[in-house]
Amino acid sequence: MAVEGGVVAATVRIPPLGDTIVLLAHELQHVIEKTRGVDVEAEARRPGSGVWRAFGGYETQAAVDVSRQVAQELRKHPKDRRGLKIPHP
User: Fold this and answer.
1) What is the distance between the terminal CA atoms of the chain, rounded to a whole angstrom?
2) Which domain holds residue 52?
3) Rounded to whole angstroms, how far apart are CA atoms 53 and 1?
4) Structural domain contains residue 2
5) Is residue 58 part of a domain?
6) C-beta of residue 29 within 8 angstroms of C-beta of residue 63
7) pLDDT digits (tens, 9 = 90+) for 7-34
8) Are 86 and 20 in contact (CB under 8 A)?
9) Residue 69 resides in a domain
10) Angle at which helices 20-35 and 61-76 cross, to 10°
11) What's the domain count of the chain?
């Protein structure tokens, strides 16, 4: 992730499985956490912080919550997804 002139540029890798929109929302939450200066390593050591080690990295409750919220909204409004295509590299 890089910040230049107040603009944040982040590279997010999303596997071609599962719901791309939900995965993107989840990963963007992690970008937001980084821009806010969340020290996931330190937070993972603090019980009840909502951050834990997972899959060789870290996971946050905030990102899990965002995933659930976006999935719920997409289930409520399935027609809003028509025509939405996110290409995979």
Assistant:
1) 19
2) 17-81
3) 20
4) no
5) yes
6) yes
7) 889 999 888 888 899 999 999 999 999 9
8) yes
9) yes
10) 140
11) 1
